[in-house]
Write a structure and sequence with these properties.
Structural class: alpha/beta
Mean pLDDT: 78
Oligomer: single chain
Radius of gyration: 34 Å
Number of strands: 8
Number of helices: 19
Strand order of the largest sheet: 3-4-5-6-7-8
Distance between the termini: 96 Å
Helix content: 55-70%
Amino acid sequence: MIGLACLFLLICLKLARNLSFGADEHETSFGRLKRIAGYAVWLVITGRNALVVLIAAVTVGICQSKGFQPFTTAGDITPGLPRFHPPAFELTYHNHTYTAKEISSQIGAGFAIIPILGLVEAMAIGKVFAKRNGYTIDPNQEFIAVGVSNILGSFLSAFPVTGSFSRTAVNSASGVRTPAGGICTGLLVILSLLFLTPYFTLIPNAALAAVIIMAVSDMVDFSLLKKLWQVKRIDLIPWILTFIFSFVLGVEWGILIGIGVSLLMILYPWGRPVITDNTDAYLQLGELQPFQDIIVISLNQGLVFPGVEILKESVASKALSCDSPKSVIFDCSHIANIDYTSVEGIGHLLDDFKKMNVVIVFCCLQPHVFEVLVKADIVNFIHAFNVKDGIRLVSSGILSSLASDDSTHHHLLDDVQLLED
């Protein structure tokens, strides 16, 4: 009940932000009173989180004085500041001393997972509030800050330092706007550890939960669902999975799973590239005639090893689906990169088509991609500057002799010279 009461009070105080006491043009006693009342309300609204926790703690104190304890509280907190000392590489727990080797074996993959999760969470929080408040963040600066904080924290037996959605949301809801808020928070923590720890036992967990729930609720933007549904529905998948797993496994794992799913969605088109048959378009333009056994295909992006097999199957199905094999004009204008496995796959594809006396001409290759293919020394590699020149090259009939040629590669400049002669 105290949790619901705290939520209700926080909601009322949040709505009170819209109250306006107006401005009095003449400095009368009533106008001054209104101005003072406005400042008082602003102070209460800004400090509403602390006010609600204080009221809840007083309520618990009154109940305890009457011998009534229905609430779960924060419990005892060790007073004083932690001792500054070098990081300990041994741990004594239940009369057993664990060595650094034993601790390392217990943590295992956590040595890599914990820093990654910490950095991911810090960046995710930074981006959310940067977008909300209209500023930019420097990832390098954030990483340096997290690293330095953890190094210094190790000398004070601190928990691993990273960003926190709940604490950042509470800060934002309390009116913090600059990094100076961190200095104020740090001073308050130090003063609390020195003088106020006996009173922390009176703070009910439900009141703290209400403060966090109200602070985080401002960060939930369900209007994004409508935008994703209208623009690109497949992007709802990482959103939904991140939302679900954040509840089930925690925020850190939810973010990590969301990033993993997003990476898979980015990599999928590279593994399953879209191969387009543009033959009809060139027939309509008159650059290709129906009687010519030529097909023109294009790839919508770079060619890397996951997509090589798809390319080979697609080219084979399109070129060999008829009784008479067709020559292939491969429009490579959208291929911005290529790896060694793809080069090998192209070589095998050319070898297989050579056995069937089918020629493949690569057109519109970007200079760096062309350079890679030439350096690979692929047998039967034929290149034209554009699709029109490729069609002209195949239609000329000179490639029928090249199909049985053992030269390593052919360039359109040589073939144009042959045509002119």
